[in-house]
Give the backbone structure.
Amino acid sequence: MPMKYLLILALAVVVYMWWRNGRIAQARPRPGAAPRAGSPQDMVCCPVCSVHLPRGDAVAGGDGRLYCSQEHRLRAPGG
Ligand SMILES: [Zn+2]
């Protein structure tokens, strides 16, 4: 029985699996290179309806607060 051929075949399979795993590990992105969490856009919360919206879309009140709309700016207490 050609036992040495089986050993060579087994060794070839092991080397192939090891090489394949190495390639998969290289293709995988590094955990440290992941993009940071959180939105880059600054979000504000309307004090009337508690909705979150970008700061650029918010309406500034007289007291410096930011509202989702002109209607809520007028509805705000003391505004
Ligand atoms: Zn609102």
User: Anything to note?
Assistant: The radius of gyration is 31 Å. The pocket of zinc ion is lined by residues 46, 48-49, 51, 67-69, 72 (CB under 6 Å). The chain has a mean pLDDT of 84.
